[in-house]
Amino acid sequence: MYEVRGRGAMGETDGEAGEDESYGLKPMNCPGHCLLFKSQNHSYRELPIRYADFSPLHRNEVSGSLSGLTRVRRFHQDDGHIFCRPQQIKGEIASALGFVNMVMTTFGLGPYRLVLSTRPEKDFIGSLELWDSAEAQLREALDSTGREWAMNEGDGAFYGPKIDIQLQDQTGKYHQLSTIQLDMNLPQRFGLEYQVAEGEEDYNPTTPGRATPVLVHRANFGSIERFLALLIEQYGGRWPFWLSPRQGIILTVNQDEAVVDQAHQAAAKISGFGALQPSQNQGVTPTPLSSVDSTFLIDVDTSGQTLGKKIQRAKEMKYNVIFVLGPKDVAESRITMDITGQMQSKPEGNLKKLEQLMVDRLGGGKVLQKPRAIAVELDQVHGLLTAMEREYL
């Protein structure tokens, strides 16, 4: 029998006909990671030990609380658990906060605020000394970030204080995403321990040679579904190149056979899937290039519409980069780039990085004077897109 543990459990269900078992949906990963830690003997020299899990989680939300992707019954969390010594709490919290800031900065999200929730007045577990030490280390870790943070007195869980990272959406509403939480309950309930030598700071004469670790729960993204909802709202369809589902499209000036054939060849080369080869069944098939480690989503429009209508449609679909290919481009092994879509993507501060990258890659200081018509050698395009991706533009 599989028991359901944790808050918001969805409950049990019977197994298949003939099975003498019942099943439950697991709401959180914490117990599993505790059992994983307990399955081996650990020395104090090994700590901290960190586990992470992206498996689906379930929570039976009350009626009326479900809301799009921001609150769902089945969700995914970058659920991490750190088993550490008490004196390591500050360093692990500071590291986790740095990880959170890297995520927010990389995705161009913000502003966000940090909130520390401290020991509740009653019904908490653990000694006052341990709580005071844990809260002091959390405060020091928060101070080391250089960011402002707020205090939420008495709102910590009964098993430990926590730091909530709350992200502000476009309407000014704050959503809780990341969480960093200390837990002095589960290690005790699961009987977790590590070997510690006499003379060490965490050596306890009452349990000679053994000590109980502190558990740090951390989730940088929180619910991936909620994180995605806020990303969608933040970018409003104008995605940065490295995240975009429509990174680029090649538009042909006409339907000449040479132009159409070159467009498909260029798409394969630019996307990183190699040269196209004839196929009896489908006309062309991509052949991967082992020397290329980045691939991109490049579409092709060889329809009979006018170039103006093709460009208008590509802009409406918010392609980051629009490539135009005509007979002259075919003759000179080049392609024309329109990067105005990428210039409008967020965050706005990336525009200067884009300008510098284009100058460095294509040469000259006037590359972006005509961002709708940048002539680029075909062999240069994949490297340029790879640089954009690696700069998170």
Overall average residue pLDDT: 82
The fourth-level CATH homologous superfamily of the largest domain is Bira Bifunctional Protein, Domain 2
Percent strand:
15-25%
Number of helices: 11
**Under CATH, the topology of the largest domain is which?**
BirA Bifunctional Protein, domain 2
What is the 3D form? Answer: elongated
Give the fraction of residues assigned to helices: 25-40%
- Give the CATH level 1 class of the largest domain: Alpha Beta
N- and C-termini, Cα separation? 50 Å
Largest sheet: 7 strands, mixed
Task: Estimate nothing, just give the exact number of structural domains.
Answer: 2
Q: Going across the major beta sheet, what is the strand order?
A: 3-6-13-10-9-7-8
pLDDT < 50 stretches:
1-9, 275-283
Q: Which architecture of the largest domain does the CATH hierarchy give at level 2? A: 2-Layer Sandwich
**Structural class assignment:** alpha+beta
Radius of gyration based on Cα positions:
27 Å
Number of strands: 20
Protein name: threonine--tRNA ligase
Biased composition (Acidic residues): 13-22
Keywords: Aminoacyl-tRNA synthetase, ATP-binding, Ligase, Mitochondrion, Nucleotide-binding, Protein biosynthesis, Ribonucleoprotein, Ribosomal protein, Transit peptide
Domain Aminoacyl-transfer RNA synthetases class-II family profile: 1-240
